[in-house]
């Protein structure tokens, strides 16, 4: 046996194997090294998709339940809490969450449904000020659009400011719109299948409520203490309704009549 020839053949085979390994790898790297060149896929399956700017700043994340981001980071401080749904998150130029979409649904062994979907947009550095929500537990469900007020300070600053506050101080801050969300408008359905329009003042106190269903349609106006002072509508007998109430809730004669 020619040992020199055998050694040359082994070297040739090693070089050939190395070349066949490197060429596809280099070609693949070159393909991904051209970000402006469009690539078309007929179908792609991923567990998580990150949309980023060229500098790496995250703009949007789509992920399944297992790979969905947990908690939120504002002003560089992370607040951890579990998220158990798949969905999509939006991010501002600071790389902070500014809205998103989550969804899910399941049915237990007894046939009871637990499902929902939630799309929201956040105030800069704060929580959701616009939310479109469907939520179901069993047979009853609600679906509606909500508008909220959020504090001027970021979530991180608010948490730091009130971390040692008493319950009374937190309640006062809530009433002043400095802590948490203040619900302002709700338009949607109720669990009893009525249509509803709810309008609140800057403190989150309900001032106007419109309810419509097969029995009646009524519009209530409330004072600053939440007491109904005027009701307008059509009752269950299809008759018009105009009722006024004093501060004690006693019906009175409308002014001017």
TrEMBL record:
Keywords: Membrane, Transmembrane, Transmembrane helix. It comes from the Bacteria. The chain crosses the membrane at residues 12-32. The keyword Membrane applies. This is Lipoprotein.
């Amino acid at each position: 046996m020619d040992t020199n020839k055998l050694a040359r053949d082994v070297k040739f085979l090693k070089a050939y194997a190395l070349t066949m390994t490197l060429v596809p790898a280099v070609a693949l790297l070159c393909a991904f090294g051209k970000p402006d060149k469009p690539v078309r896929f007929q179908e792609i399956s991923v567990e998580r998709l990150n949309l980023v700017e060229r500098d790496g700043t995250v703009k949007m994340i789509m992920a399944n339940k297992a790979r969905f981001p947990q908690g939120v980071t504002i002003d560089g401080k992370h607040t951890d809490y579990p998220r158990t749904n798949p969905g999509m998150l939006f991010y501002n130029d600071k790389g902070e969450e500014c809205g998103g979409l989550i969804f899910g649904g399941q049915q237990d062994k007894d046939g009871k449904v637990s499902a929902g979907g939630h799309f929201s947009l956040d105030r800069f550095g704060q929580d959701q000020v616009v939310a479109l929500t469907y939520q179901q537990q069993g047979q009853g469900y609600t679906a509606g659009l909500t508008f909220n007020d959020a504090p001027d300070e970021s979530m991180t600053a608010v948490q730091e400011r009130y971390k040692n506050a008493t319950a009374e101080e937190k309640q006062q801050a809530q009433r002043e719109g400095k802590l948490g969300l203040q619900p302002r408008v709700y338009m949607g359905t109720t669990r009893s299948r009525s249509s509803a329009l709810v309008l609140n003042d800057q403190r989150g106190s309900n001032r106007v409520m419109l309810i419509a269903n097969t029995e009646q349609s009524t519009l209530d106006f409330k004072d600053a203490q939440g007491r109904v002072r005027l009701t307008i509508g059509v009752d269950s007998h299809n008759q018009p309704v105009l009722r006024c109430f004093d501060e004690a809730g006693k019906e009175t004669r409308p002014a001017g009549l």
